[in-house]
Amino acid sequence: MKGNITQYGQPCPIRDVLNQIGGQWSLLILEALSGRTVRFNVLNREIEGISRQMLTRTLRRLEEDGYIDRKVFAEVPPRVEYSLTELGDSFMVPLQLLIQWADEHHSSICRARRLYHELQRGQFN
């Protein structure tokens, strides 16, 4: 197996999915769309730190993979709304478990990091 391709020339499912949704912004966008339809500017305001360009790029990638639906309304100015597809909705089940796990264990992870860095500094002093 080389990279994301299996010996049969097909993408490795785990790597393929994680490469697409594992980016810095994808999970935040999916969570922001959970259970509702949202306009671009609302997403841009709600997702702190994301640029308009990165939001556009990530939305396109999520749409390409079938997680979200983009609906354009023929109005002036044009209105664009985003929502989860059935696939995106089904992904929210494991995502919510991951979010819950992260909330429950984040302080332990932070403590472990601090301890690791303290030990590393001690070795080099």
Task: Characterize the structure shown.
By secondary structure, the chain is mainly α. Helices cover 61% and strands 11% of the residues. The protein is built from five helices and three strands. It has helices spanning 13-21, 26-33, 40-46, 52-64, 86-124; strands at residues 38-39, 68-73, 79-84. Strands 1-3-2 form a three-stranded antiparallel beta sheet. A hairpin with a 5-residue loop joins β2 (68-73) and β3 (79-84). The longest helix has 39 residues, at 86-124. The radius of gyration is 19 Å and the shape is elongated. The mean pLDDT is 89.
What are the salient characteristics of this protein?
125 residues, 3-stranded antiparallel sheet, elongated
What is shown here, in short?
With 125 residues, this protein is mainly alpha-helical. It contains five helices and three strands, in the order H-H-E-H-H-E-E-H. It has a three-stranded antiparallel β-sheet.
